[in-house]
Amino acid sequence: MNLKENHEGYHTLTKIPPSIGYSHVVEAERKRLSPAVAAPGKQNAILAKKKAQAMSLATKPGQQILMNAFMMYMSGSSLNIFTISTTSSAIITPVTSIFRLEKMFGKFEEVDTQTAKLIYIALNLIWLAIGLYKMSSMRLLPTTSADYADSIPWKNMMELSSIPPVI
Fold this sequence. Notes:
60% of the residues lie in helices and 0% in strands. The chain has helices spanning 10-15, 22-33, 40-58, 60-75, 81-99, 101-104, 114-137. The longest helix has 24 residues, at 114-137.
């Protein structure tokens, strides 16, 4: 029960002595809310567990890379809806994961997560590279000079005759 000073009966209830065992409940709640007061060994164990969870989160894209690479291999190189959806998923998912990096590792702020973040970014970049390679093999990325033919400046003809001028 959370009463404030302006609530009716607040002063009457504060004058009543606490019930038996109430001090144990208050102390247990205080210990639960302040982990910094815990024993140093227990605190180190908690930090180690959080660091292990951060590393587990960092290696999560590695599991998806193999599955997506196999799905893209099995889909072939023809243009159909299944191939395009798996390829676009392999490009969009790592990019959005990299942009949500701080949100993903936000709950591990007490632990040094630099290594975990670097592993997470590296695995997502590998996943993105596989998706871009698949797009390139399907000829959806401009990788040859013929893809840029419209940007080549054409020279204007100076003469319309095929007879050379006499000097």
